[in-house]
Amino acid sequence: MKRRNFIRSLTVGSGIAISAGAPAFAYTILGKGKKYDADIIIYGGTCAAVTAAVQAKKLGKAVIIVSPDKHLGGMTSGGLGFTDTGNKTVIGGLAREFYHRIYIHYDRPESWKWQKKAAYGNKGQGTPAVDGENRTMWIFEPHAAEKVFEDFVKENGIQVLRDEWLDREKGVEVKNGRITAIKTVSGNIFTGKMFIDTTYEGDLMAAARVNYTVGREPGSLYNEKWGGIVTGVFQHGHYFKSDIDPYKTPGDPSSGLLPRISPDPPGNRGEGDKKVQAYCYRMCLSSHTENKLPFPQPKGYDPFQYELLVRVFNAGWRELFQKFDPIPNMKTDTNNHGPFSTDNIGMNYAYPDASYKLRRQIIEEHKTYQKGLMYFIATDPRIPRDVQDEFNAWGLAKDEFVDNGNWPQQLYVREARRMVGELVMTENEILGKNPVTDSIGMGSYTLDSHNIQRYVTPEGYVQNEGDFGVHVPQPYSISYKSILPKEKDCENLLVPVCLSSSHVAYGSIRMEPVFMILGESAATAAVNAIDNHVSVQKVNYEELKRQLLQQDQRLA
Fold first, then answer.
1. At 56, is the secondary structure helix, strand, or coil?
2. Position 22 pLDDT exceeds 50
3. 524-529 contact pairs (CB < 8 A, 24+)
4. Nearest to 536 by CA among 548, 549, 523, 519
5. What percent of the chain is modeled with pLDDT above 90?
6. Both 199 and 348 in a single domain?
7. Statement to judge: residues 121 and 61 lie in one domain
8. Helix/strand/coil (H, E, C) string of 357-390?
């Protein structure tokens, strides 16, 4: 086997070119793949992966991003351009740098191709798009976000290997409580001193046999008011406001249920289950005639899947466009809204622990459902004419996701696995009832869960369950212990995305700016652990706090 150092510009496997003079990392040629070595190995391609890698590099460590994704940024570059920020003053460090770079991008006249900057305005549903005083911008197009992440990578000489999927069965080597190496399906092996799992699914964490959970804890477990099943809670508009018959033949249970309604009872208020909140795609739509494409009919299209929506419209519902949130250049970040929308309720329960093959099937089903929904609204004669005419003013943005049929690459995995680590963040920490004394960043967004079930009520009507939105009175600190496995599980792994949190608390923490913050802080802690020859659990918090404050992380 021959060992080399990267000291010149080249491309490795499915990775990107390494700039000449970049800090070296090593690889060894194996029979099937290559063996790579760095101080810190980051698995995932989300926004947290990028901020973690940038921070590790700034602190002088060799780092590799092993990304299953070809495009960096996760949901931030995957359609979620109308940022869920909460209180922006608690967003610091590299996360704030990201939004500053977005500001710089849109300060250039050439960035406004389809409309004038002045025509865009500065507000959208209470979220200021442009903060001139602080030179930040919080609403953006997908391609603009992806460019910022790629610039971060290029400027810092970060090695990224893309389309590299962890071998989840046999690909994590653990010795004496420490991960020593991970192997991908391609045969490549990555060795390091510290590992950071930045995936939405927590695949590295799970493969390392770290304790985790899926679904909703009962409210009694952590003394949470909003824990478990929440039948009868309607805090958003995502429920059936009218009595809608669930049966194929109205009034006839023997005819069977319409598609996408569960025959099972939802369970009792406060009970736990293994179900997860609904996923969807955050679509980027355009209303500019030169930049929109008609909604295509997907393979496998079945109009009967949307029969329930027809009944909702016939009952007088007209809120379809309330989450066509405006982003620059006459585009939208279009999110779920209403009782029957882009959220594919109940079709994702198997996803967190599913094999890659089953996940692909679930992803394709979600894609077919949502593309079919768009085609149905655009073409079906049963859609009210006024709604359909307004809807057809929109289409897929021609200049976004150009290598994926103008459809987002990233399914919005709102929640999958959640680690059960050194400390579990619960609604009591989020709502300020329990103090957090080892903050590594802050959140502030509403406790927010999308629907989890669609069922038939005792009265014989269809209803949704699982959605809630609970006001958070003030920004809260996120514990360092919440991104750490228990020391007996693993001593050199940090988990800033699928962190240790209850379902309720994750509803607030799961925001993209928070993931950037936690990714950066995880990398700082990893470097501290390396330099001091300790486990991540033994990092001196006061020293870590001092480092984070120097990085302009907001801790309190």
1. helix
2. no
3. 524/55, 524/59, 524/548, 524/551, 525/440, 525/480, 525/483, 525/494, 526/40, 526/56, 526/61, 526/194, 526/196, 526/494, 527/39, 527/40, 527/55, 527/56, 527/59, 527/60, 527/61, 527/194, 529/194, 529/492
4. 523
5. 90
6. no
7. no
8. HHHHHHHHHHHHHHHHHHHHHHHCCCCCHHHHHH
The secondary element (H helix, E strand) that includes residue 455 is strand 453-456
The residue from 382, 397, 412 where one domain ends is 397
Q: Is 554 left (phi over 0), alpha (psi -120 to 50) or beta?
A: beta
Q: Which residue's entry shows tokens 């593309």?
A: 371
In a domain, 132, yes or no: yes
What digits encode the pLDDT tens for the residues 476-491?
999 999 999 999 999 9
In a domain, 242, yes or no: no
Q: Say how many domains are in the chain.
A: 3
> By mean pLDDT, which of 6-15, 167-176, 268-277, 537-546 is the weakest?
6-15
Shared-domain flag, residues 65 and 36 = yes
Which helix (H) or strand (E) segment is 440 a member of?
Answer: strand 439-443
| E-strand stretches of 73-177 | 123-124, 127-128, 130-131, 136-137, 159-161, 172-175
Name the band, by pLDDT with cuts 50, 70 and 90, for residue 133: confident
d(CA 485, CA 483): 7
Residue where a domain stops, chosen among 372, 397, 422:
397
- Range of lowest pLDDT (21-30, 152-161, 355-364): 21-30
State which amino acid sits at residue 534. Answer: V
Domain co-membership, 333 together with 296: yes
Q: Give the domain extent around 324.
A: 285-397
Same domain as 129, residue 25: no
In a domain, 274, yes or no: no
The residue-averaged pLDDT of 443-450 equals 97
Q: Is residue 272 included in any domain, yes or no?
A: no
pLDDT value of position 118? 87
Distance CA 341, CA 326 (A): 18
Burial level of 111, CB count in 10 A (0-12/13-18/19+)?
A: middle
